[in-house]
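User: For my dataset I need records formatted as: sequence, then structure tokens, nothing else. Please produce one.
Assistant:
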Amino acid sequence: MDAFYASVEQRDNPDLRGRPVAVGGSRERGVVAAASYEARAFGVRSAMPSVTAKRQCPDLIFVKPRFEVYKAVSQQIREIFAEHTPIIEPLSLDEAYLDVTENIQNIPLARDIALAIRLKIKEVTGLNASAGISYNKFLAKLASDHRKPNGQYIITPEMGSAFVEALHVGKFHGIGPATSAKMNSLGLHTGLDMRNQTLEFMQANFGRAGAYYYWISRGVDNREVRANRIRKSIGAENTFSSDLTAFEPMVAELQPLIDKVWRHCEEKGSRGRTVTLKVKFNDFEIITRSRSVAGSVSSRDDLERLSVALLQNEVPFPKPVRLLGVSLSSLQGESEEDEQLGLPI
């Protein structure tokens, strides 16, 4: 989906159409959860501090997120996908992989399936979607960004190798800023640079991910589209209105986050083994600390005890704390994608 949260807000409020919109908190310590294309033209991006976004786009309009509305629209879109294939792998509320090798409507060309889905989404929701079509997940993801917004692009087997070799490593799905910087320091700037390295070199420098990078630089990705992905983690986090320095106020701020995570576990009947505490300091440095148990975290009290113990181990903190987060991973008893309960706004 194109600028999903922001597009929903523009759809539902005609006064926002054609104007730069950011979904998120406008207060001093807020964060942009999503930006309309009008806002992106000024350099506004998701996860950007609201004060920075406002500085770059003085006319930016902030809208509070309505996650229940976004989830409802997402369900409408999933139902449209299901008219074409049962093999749907959701990545988030606004994105999914579909395997249409064999499709319910027996449409012979994937290009036409993508077009039909996009037209139906527009008809049902009033929103624009873009599509990437290729012979594996990595290339389909790259293709989906190539004609945004409201477009689609095909990478054929004949095109795959050349398409990847010209691509900057920072554009590779799965390669973030830190890994991109490390690759650049090693002289790896494009897919071709990566392809010129041996498997041993890539694994020595990037560990287990090195093999993945080695193969995708050759346009090879054998991962299947997995319906009913196993959810790996569930988490919640919050950015505070003012920095925290004392232990007790931090423990108090953890309570609603623990409540959210445990409520989800109860509703879904899932349990996890690993508790992770996330701390973001006032200079935006982030640390995470984890602890695993032999069986599973069996109660809300256990989740609280482990979370607070992780926090206690870091006292005294070297800097004021801007954000805290709690997540539970190695989940059992539930099928779905990863989920973050709420965004820092």
